[in-house]
């Protein structure tokens, strides 16, 4: 059983007012957010905090409230629907040229969302994902072969990032020779909110490329996801090109920038808890041991720290606090996953934890569509890494881990390791 982690004491000395002005999108915050969430859970479980571009976000931090918020139809993903004329719009706007991407699953509610999800599910099936198992195993081994020859690797850049990216590109049907460009394009896409001018050129190229791929598969279908999305039908209804484009972009970004963080932060947690790493290493042939372990790594690391933005379409009362209509609301998954009311000893990494009602993949209508793929990847990659590198360790164990800044996802920039 792992030793309990020490929470940064700094949060204990701050008043709620001071906590509300902490920049929760900074690198410093990403390094040790859990003490902050604990303070809010205890003292202000529904609290407006500083958010991107000078705006304010209401964060909800207790497990039952987070779960209820994720299911609450009054908290909308479509900001236009939620905000009425006269209500001040907070939060970020989307450049006009990216408007087609606003037709994605994470921008829609109710019947519009249900329709899209029904059609997409026809193509993005558990069967299609299960077909990737062998490829995921081969790719894992080949990335580890290269790393082992060198004896050292950046766990993020050389392993955790390429694996999900190459797999999702193959699922989509991107020709192998185009895969390397995808990393740069997905990065540009994720940076578009923060650095619109620098990223927009790459994003437009990316959209152009995907449109051409959709047209190519409409004319000449293959056994891939793009062809499946083109063919998906519900009666007379089908997906438009813009909807397929939005879906591909969402799958690429959601499918890439999240799993990398699970594998990165998950491995760091194992390096910090060697007894737990040994447990997983010795049980790595037992699917049940591996399954339970990955669920705990999901809970403990919460790669998606807060769910994506929601907007209150009406005044909404949570835990006795009224969130005014038109507010930006964040359900703090990372906080719910460490709530002592839901988990015994929540700050302890316990790979045998069961049951484990974590909310790492969300809940309700927007529950992660890629959860089976993310699980498959982590269940293959993490035990393989431990098995192949019995003495795995950080190149410089004394250096503070390099966390990336950013709002919603939480992950490491790099993690140099010796195999
Ligand atoms: C460890 C990896 C992952 C984590 C922790 C994760 C987490 C999440 C969470 C929390 C949500 C809900 C967001 C919200 O309600 O605001 C979500 C939605 C989604 N995820 Fe994931 N995800 C992961 C991997 C993936 C992968 C591999 C894919 C696809 C290839 C994917 C595709 C999606 C999609 C399409 C949605 C939107 C579903 C909808 O709105 O109906 N995710 N994910």
Automatic annotation (TrEMBL):
CDD domains: CYP107-like (cd11029). The keyword Repeat does not apply. It comes from the Bacteria. InterPro entries: Cyt_P450, Cyt_P450_B, Cyt_P450_CS, Cyt_P450_sf. Keywords: Heme, Iron, Metal-binding, Monooxygenase, Oxidoreductase. Belongs to the cytochrome P450 family. PANTHER family: CYTOCHROME P450 YJIB-RELATED (PTHR46696:SF1), P450, PUTATIVE (EUROFUNG)-RELATED (PTHR46696). This is Cytochrome P450. It comes from Actinomycetospora lemnae.
């Amino acid at each position: 059983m792992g030793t309990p982690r020490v929470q940064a004491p700094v949060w204990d000395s701050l008043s709620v007012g001071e906590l509300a002005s902490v920049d929760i999108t900074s690198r410093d915050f990403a390094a040790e957010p859990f003490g902050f969430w604990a303070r809010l859970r205890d003292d202000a479980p529904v609290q407006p905090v500083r958010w991107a571009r000078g705006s304010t976000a209401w964060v909800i931090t207790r497990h039952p409230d987070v779960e209820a918020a994720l299911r609450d139809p009054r908290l909308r993903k479509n900001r236009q629907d939620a905000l009425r004329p006269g209500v001040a719009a907070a939060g970020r706007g989307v450049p006009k040229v990216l408007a087609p991407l606003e037709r994605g699953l994470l921008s829609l509610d109710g019947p519009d969302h249900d329709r899209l999800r029904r059609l997409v599910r026809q193509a993005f099936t558990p069967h299609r994902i299960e077909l990737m198992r062998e490829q995921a195993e081969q790719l894992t081994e080949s990335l580890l072969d290269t790393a082992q020859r060198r004896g050292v690797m950046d766990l993020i850049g050389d392993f955790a990032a390429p694996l999900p990216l190459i797999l999702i590109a193959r699922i989509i049907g991107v020709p192998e020779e185009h895969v390397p460009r995808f990393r740069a394009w997905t990065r540009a896409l994720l940076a578009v909110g923060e650095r619109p001018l620098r990223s927009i050129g790459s994003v437009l190229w990316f959209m152009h490329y995907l449109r051409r791929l959709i047209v190519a598969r409409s004319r000449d279908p293959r056994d891939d996801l793009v062809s499946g999305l083109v063919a998906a039908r519900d009666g007379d209804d089908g997906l438009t090109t813009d909807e397929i484009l939005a879906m591909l972009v969402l799958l690429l970004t959601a499918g890439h920038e999240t799993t990398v963080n699970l594998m990165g932060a998950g491995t760091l947690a194992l390096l910090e808890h060697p007894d737990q790493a040994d447990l997983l290493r010795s049980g790595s042939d037992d699917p049940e041991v591996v399954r339970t372990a990955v669920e705990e790594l999901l809970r403990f690391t919460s790669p998606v720290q807060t769910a994506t933005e929601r907007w209150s379409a009406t005044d909404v009362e949570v835990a006795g606090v009224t969130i005014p209509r038109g507010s930006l609301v964040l359900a703090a998954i990372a906080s719910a996953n460490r709530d002592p009311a839901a988990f015994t000893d929540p700050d302890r990494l316990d790979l045998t934890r069961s049951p484990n009602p974590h909310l790492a993949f969300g809940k309700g209508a927007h529950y992660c569509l890629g959860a089976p793929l993310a699980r498959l990847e982590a269940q293959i990659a993490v035990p393989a890494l431990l098995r192949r590198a019995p003495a795995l360790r950080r190149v410089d164990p004394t250096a503070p881990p390099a966390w990336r800044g950013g709002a919603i996802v939480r992950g490491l920039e790099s993690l140099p390791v010796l195999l």
